[in-house]
């Protein structure tokens, strides 16, 4: 069986596991106060060229979005997101659970448009009854998006400008950021992101860690008593070392680059093969998620050999599916997959 | 100055105030356990031809929507509403405040479409990842809608059928129901509504009461310990008599009909006058809210003589405004308004 | 039947109802933006000798506590209250519903002790693990308390000093404040309270209004977008005039004093009569709530003639009950009650 | 430096890490749907002699308490706990964050008393105003408690009986259950606990796993759509294998017994040594947490050589501290510690 279902179906990159082994019996203080966590924070600050960045490690993506968004927003504010944003669709209402509305704007290849954001804010502020409405309090984007697409540097700059004009913190969900960074089409470096965003997170789970997401507050803007707020959200790990050590390993010897590159290169190989075979792409994703429109009958056969993700119904006889590659995907498996298609 | 801003800018119908006067010094027990509240409940049961109906009185519309929706939904469920639904747009996030997402569907003249609801539910249930999404747990509609429109009997029947098929309680926001009932175009009687909906409320505030909304559970489906839940939402009135007596008066001697009729008849007079003068209507509302597309320059002049509601920007030189009539609107004021237009 | 069950079993003082009558057909804008509401706010500012006070009217006491406390606290903070505080015991968890813990301290005649508050804060701050605990974010007291008792001026000063030292806003629940003000034993004037407290509310419901509580922020400390937060909590009245007009009447011609005085004087008459008859008082309440320890057998007989409140079981054969007087209690009824006892 | 600060300052038992290594490159489906998670669930069912048990794995203790309690309680209910219960004191308000009150009863060596629980319930139900109060909806206990103490079988039976009589689900926080099970004084086996409790969790974090807690619903009582509720609470791990594999290892070859035993045996050695040296114990904990009353001056010296936990101030010159042992504590370290004391 071939596995292209997602980018989190293996454990951790062996170097990360090895680091957990090597440090295993050290006595370390809990809740993220250990020295490996500090080392990892420093590496992130350096890579972002943002010495004032404050970094926290949480366990998973939904948890991170929930904790960050709830802590940053005032109680009467909501978060603006593309209608396809993960926080809007696939987090089981985790944001609303904390009392905040997700205010949706149209998506364009999974992305928010700066001009539409500006129009939205102007309409909101110009509405006589806006005191009876949810105040927009921050902006959520994902990069790469849920559709595998990337913001250009200009797009992010424009979004960032609109956000600053309206005093909206800009938050980037980087669940697949490490993969995105390795993509030739990507225009945004970590320092760019640290500069243009107020908060972002670098996902570990989909980049070869067992778990863990690194939240970066780039503008001396960590919410007050954030550790307490993490605890209150049930998100504080007793053995904080588990995240700290993994991120320290991920950012040692450019392991994060190696992991991202493998995902991107195997995706490129698969994309090229699919193109040659004339498959219909649902969109133009340059990263490690490939979306195809397939005939249902063809999919029925494929199921016996390949694990893929159902994305959505296209029409009565076609379905959109996703193949994902990861740090762990081998070229051999891509070739086997292509030989089946 | 002429007042067509909304349908709640006067106090109460004099008969309602008189009833408060007449009963004022009676000693009555608190929290809705008094006999006037019981009388009002019985009148509502009778009018709905629904002897098993359970009735509760709350103070305002947003409070009612918040308390009912939160009490009916399970914690992981959201409420489906038209994208223009009051709960989605104009309640300052009161639903999300209680932890629930408002799941929006397209609006058609402010209404939900049964077929689209069915498609939505089938797509949801057919989605492999729906366990990661908010479960639709009830359906919210308003009648008349926020756009003054009315569901036909067939439309409500179809919605009700889809709701039952998917075990979704159907909840009708009747903030302006009493006005709707008086409209010649209205096809839905109180017994129809009690039959087709699982929960609805009859608004008092916009029908000539000082405050108060009557929530009706029609299917032996009152949430457990609903009084406690009302209290928990800060919505339990110590002097419950204030709502009970007013609703008792509203449903005595057909006062509710009289109030609804005045709103509808003055609206009809205004609509006809506006038509004759060639004004552009934004939509085709048969009830007491009239939406017009007006030139901004014309509105500037009008401001000196008339209070109206800004609705939304139509384009750079035009604005959508609303004129509302009520139980208290006089034909003279309508004629004066028409003479100004 | 005699009614001494509570201080909210009648409607409104006739002068208040009359004012609602007199203003009934005036067109007034909604949501508290009318001129009667403004008049009432000015009267409160004057009485408090606090020209910078910001005043808001809400409908009921639990709603007021819920909205104020949730709006003032940061999301990771709780409110300190006496273990007998209304917010802790009798509001169906309305505070926790908004995500905040009620942190309880011992009660002394229903009151918080400044020294115990100081010790609590020092212990909290001295605890190594306090980042894992709920941060105390404000202090709730009631005056008169749930037990009818009053803070002395020294007691409130000391509390206020401790609060300021620890930057804890001090909030007074004045559900029965108007009655308290009329009590000869009361040492605290409205200006004292406005000076020593950061926020307080003056209850209308128990002082002769149909409903309504006036929240006063005394230190330019109204929470941001408080109107939106009121709406979000379901607590914004469309016909805001209902509260504004009533409070305007209550603070005209010293009506509030008259109402408070009647409650206090009839309570004094009842207290003296009970004393002479040798009844056992549960505590030493100088205000309009009298708590007695009665034999259960005696209570069984009394039930036929008098409505009183069960307070708590004293022992197997005795019960604590409460008699309450109000603005509406007549001396005749007190005498009748005494003749029965 | 000697480390006796807590029982989570090392990584994982080497056998657990090794299992993560061995399975690392297997492709497994996400969110706990993998076969190792199934194996772990079956092992827990077998050990509990409860074939119908439903088992879920969460990441940490506070998260588990928050998710379980919020999912089990109805929205108007609270959870009863000892005043020293972890959920009441040391979870930063995680329970209140989800809208529920923690209703506290007195603690006796950290334990709830069945008779007091019964009295509490009878008083609650007998209170005329209990509809205005938080309904008790479940009972939380910890075993071992926060004070290292254990419920006897009789104590748990009595608690369980009272809970059943009042239809209160009984929930046991077993953060240190594996340690408790290894204690000679412990009377409660896993089958006993599965029989007497409705829900409990077996802590992995403090028993030699990197993270992970196993929640067991023993009475076909898993909350509806619990997976969705876990996700909504931000508690669903993408790589669910991380918990599944660790618990599979922990329950293979009696590793959990080995880990518990080491913690208990090293604690016994330390306890005996302390006793011989005449140290004052704060309480009589038979498990791996030892609480001592120490002179502050002595503690100042000790700090240079030993890491321990501050517990609370005893008086002006004494402090209560905690030494904790774990699966990783060596006899040599205990002896070194004793030589210092």
UniProtKB/TrEMBL annotation, chains A, B, C, D:
Its cofactor is pyridoxal 5'-phosphate. It comes from Blautia caecimuris. Residues 14-295 form the Aromatic amino acid beta-eliminating lyase/threonine aldolase domain. Signal peptide: none annotated. Pfam families: Beta_elim_lyase. GO terms for molecular function: threonine aldolase activity. It is an enzyme of class 4 (lyase). Keywords: Lyase, Pyridoxal phosphate. Belongs to the threonine aldolase family. The keyword Chaperone does not apply. It comes from the Bacteria. Its EC number is 4.1.2.5. This is Threonine aldolase.
